[in-house]
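FAQ: What does the model actually see?

It sees only this:
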Amino acid sequence: MPDYTNRASLRVDPSLAAFIEAEILPPIEQDADVFWKSFADLLADFAPRNRALLERRESLQSQIDAWHRERKGQPHDTSAYQNFLREIGYLVEEPGDFTIGTQNVDAEIATMAGPQLVVPVLNARFLLNAANARWGSLYDALYGTDALDAPPAKPGGYDQKRGDAVISEGRKFLDETLPLASGSWSDLTDIADAKLADPGQYVGTTERGFLYRHNGLHIDVQVDRTTPVGETDRAGISDIVLESALTTIVDLEDSVAAVDAKDKQLAYRNWLGVIRGDLEESFEKGGRTMTRELAGNKAVTLPDGTQAELPGRSVLFVRNVGHLMTNPAILLSDGSEIPEGIMDAVLTSAISTQDVRGFTRYGNSRPSSGKASIYIVKPKMHGPEECAFTNDLFDAVEDMLALDRHTIKVGVMDEERRTSANLGACIHAVRDRIVFINTGFLDRTGDEIHTSMEAGPMVRKAEMKSADWLGAYEARNVGIGLRHGLSGRAQIGKGMWPAPDLMGKMMTEKIGHLRSGANTAWVPSPTAATLHAIHYHRENVFELQQGLGEVPGLDKLLTIPVATGTNWSEEELREELDNNAQGLLGYVVRWVEHGVGCSKVPDLDDVGLMEDRATLRISSQHMANWLHHGVVTRDQVMDSLQRMAAKVDEQNADDPNYRPMAGDPDSIAFKAACDLVFKGTQQPSGYTEPLLHAWRQEAKKVVSLKRGPGSQIR
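And it is asked to produce this:
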């Protein structure tokens, strides 16, 4: 048990307490004693309410489980099912017509459309890369990925043939987005001679080139004849730099492994550094030490000679954890762990108050009103009463930090079935602070499986993508958001492109998110953000949204994806188990033994997929469901886990810090993976966090004992 220091009625990790009192509170002129007393009072009110909401989740789930068990073997009665869900309060009455009242929102969120990154807060280098991904080189993105349909670059320096193909593709992009009054960009020998069909697209000059705007996004056409590209280009164009990741979600949740005070302090310190503007990270590359820091603003000389600036960085959201988890960083007066989501709300907001008060180097939030906002994404909320709780919590945090009401904005992640089914009421509960809704296939599918665990065996994972409920879910999210006025005031987002090495496929498929009405969508890297930005030049999302808004009813959304009358072959069963087990093990081993919450994990075909904790939820719940209904046996599941452990070991053979799982009875990662499956039906809402946190803490303890006092697993 770690030592604690007393603060008001709380017991706080000493290092965390010192960090808060030395670095977070003084700049915002918060007295430490007053802060801790206010924090303790807030917890006395909200911690019991938090527990009651979790008990309500379990009560509803128990009633749903019983309803399905009582009707086992009977045809599903859609009408009776929905009436039952209303009787128990799972479904609530939708509010009447209303429009959200959110104010003081940055243009990047409200009136601009573009890519969004999600980055783990614990990795400072990745965090800096994401924040700086506001601007990206189109030439680099095309040269180094399969988005360009041309032979790959030859190793050993600049490949002129590949470069020529990149330049040609760049000219096509300019002709498409910035058409000339006559001729093509390919014909220009001097960019100063460019006469646009729409002169209003010209913005001014930058340090290296000429700045334009299309569909609200900027394009910096850079000229430098001294570079390998510019010296061979007719017009001396050395690069085309696109405004790319307008926003970034800095994640404290699904993409990190933070289980104790030390982890949380690192998370808060990195958030403080990126908000304050002084975060730096040094690393070795090519035998040299390099230091990364936040990019400055982009200077622009306007046509009348006046000077202006454009932001050099994404507008940052911070994703707090949900309502479920607790953390030992702070203990309440009764000795129980603090609800982690409440701790995140207070401390990330306290850090962001420095930005609101203008004490930061650059400024994260800079709306035209001049009143800065704090942007928090809140995941894994179940229904409108949990959204209302978050609204009340943010009210209390604002009062505690002397912030104006609704300074703290909220992004609602529509990834739980009860939220999807009551989305209008969820939005209404946070109607004056909402800036974001989005969909997420993996978590939403995991909750779909767990909620209907007793209804029967689920269809295979691949079939979920064409299931009635999923199509209705995606369409309802956009339609309900538009109905209540999110267009032009907030983001309507779509989920992650999972394959960072398959950019060509992304360029073909991901434009569908815009055509469905989303004005932002997640991408896995800065390079992907630059490529995805092309989609926002090809489609004007706000114009597309005008023709959307039809909202499918509940019948399809609540269609349970049970596999009726299906008789899978042994080969099909083995294939499905292997697919689930391999992805689960490949992620768990890094989470539990290495503390890596988001990474590129090879699939069965060795295609790298960006995975976070949502991957485990769907895979473990699917295996648990088939096991629960006797589709597969425990022996079959264990056989798959053991064989896939060997596969994952092989995929990680080049990692000197990797500990093989196959054949090791003491493998903590393998034990964790087994628990996720064999105890899957017992996990709250099918979440993986309780088991992962317990096993990660065990892994830290084991390594600490081996290395001596003060050691920690990395």
